[in-house]
Amino acid sequence: MKNGLVPMTDNVIAVDALRGFVARALTAQGVPLSDAAQVAALMVEADVYGYNTHGVFRLRQYLARLKGGGCNPTPTLSVVQETVATGLIDGDNGLGHLAMAAARDLAMEKARKVGIGWVGVRGGNHAGPLALYVRPQAEAGLLGMAAAVGSANHVPPYGGSDLLIGTNPIAFSAPVDGPDPFVFDMATTVAAMGKIKTLLQQGEPMPEGWMVGKDGKPLTDPSRKSEGFLLPIGGPKGFGLSVAIGLLAGVLNGAAFGSDVVDFTADTTSQTNTGQFVMALDPNAFGLGDDFGQEVARIFAEMRASPPLSGHDPVRLPGDGKTLSAAAIRSNGIALKPALRYDLDLLAAEYDIAKL
C-alpha cells in the first residue's frame, strides 16, 4: 500500500478505467459517446456502492440487446405528459439508465418547486439498481422512492403456476444528519434474479428458499433456474406488493405488466417497454426542512443502541457505511470477481474493443 492506496491487480480495476471500458463497449454498438459515458458512469456507480449484481455484470446483457436490435442505441427521450407535480417520460426504447436518470432529475426539480415530484417511465429498459435513482434525493435533503416492473417474469401469482410477475423492485431514501443517508433497495422476491445469475457465473449454488421447482421442491442449482420460479417475500404479502408496483410502474405509465413483459435476456430483438417511476418529496413542504434529518438521526441512534440478540451483529440501518466504503473503492479500485473479469475480457474480444 502506498499513500493509502491499494496497488491495482488484475482483478482490481480503477474506477475511471472501468467506466472507460464500459463506455467503449457501448459506443461499439452505436451508442453516442455522451449517452455511453452517462450509462457507464451509472453502471460503475452501482459497483462502487456494492450493487454488483446490477452494475457492470449486466454489460453482456445490454450489449446483446443493442446488437440484437431490442434496444435503441440512439433514443430521443421525451416528456409526453406533465403537470406541476407529475410527468411521464418515454424512453424511446433506449438504455434504461438514460430514462431513469431523466425521471430522477425531473422529479427532484418538481419537488423543489411544489414539494413533490412523481415521474413515470415507459418505453424503458433495465436500468441497474434503483438505489441510483433515490440516493441523490437524500443527498439533496429530499426523500426518494422508485420502483420498476421486473425485466422478466420469474414469479407466478400467489397460488398459481403461470409466470406473470417479475422481481418488481422498490427503493426508498431519506436524508439523515451524518455521513450516510437512508437508502433501502430491495426486490419483492426473496432474492433478485441478478444474485442467481452471479452465482451461476461463479459456479456456486443457491441457498434453499430462493427458488422452488415446478414440483414445489427447493431448487439450488442456478443453472436450472428456468425450471422453477422465484419465491415472493412474505408469501402473499410480497405478491400483493409486487402487484401494486406493477400497477404504479407498469399500467399507470402505459408500460408492460403481466404477460406483456418481455424477458430482456432471452429475447434480444423485441422492445421491452419496461415501466418505472421515480418520486422526490421535500420535507420543507411539511414545515420540517433540516429538522427532518436531525430527527431521523436521533431515532436511528436509538435503534443502533438496541442491544443485539445473542448471535447477532449490532443493529444497522439500510445505507450504513456505504459512504465510507464507496470512498475507499473510488480510491482503491473495484475488485471484480475472476469470472466477471474473464467475461469482460471475452466481451472485449467479441466486440473488438481494447481490454481493461
Automatic annotation (TrEMBL):
<protein>
    <submittedName>
        <fullName>Putative oxidoreductase YjmC</fullName>
        <ecNumber>1.1.1.-</ecNumber>
    </submittedName>
</protein>
<dbReference type="InterPro" id="IPR003767">
    <property type="entry name" value="Malate/L-lactate_DH-like"/>
</dbReference>
<dbReference type="InterPro" id="IPR043143">
    <property type="entry name" value="Mal/L-sulf/L-lact_DH-like_NADP"/>
</dbReference>
<dbReference type="InterPro" id="IPR043144">
    <property type="entry name" value="Mal/L-sulf/L-lact_DH-like_ah"/>
</dbReference>
<dbReference type="InterPro" id="IPR036111">
    <property type="entry name" value="Mal/L-sulfo/L-lacto_DH-like_sf"/>
</dbReference>
<keyword id="KW-0560">Oxidoreductase</keyword>
<comment type="similarity">
    <text>Belongs to the LDH2/MDH2 oxidoreductase family.</text>
</comment>
<dbReference type="GO" id="GO:0016491">
    <property type="term" value="F:oxidoreductase activity"/>
</dbReference>
<dbReference type="Pfam" id="PF02615">
    <property type="entry name" value="Ldh_2"/>
</dbReference>
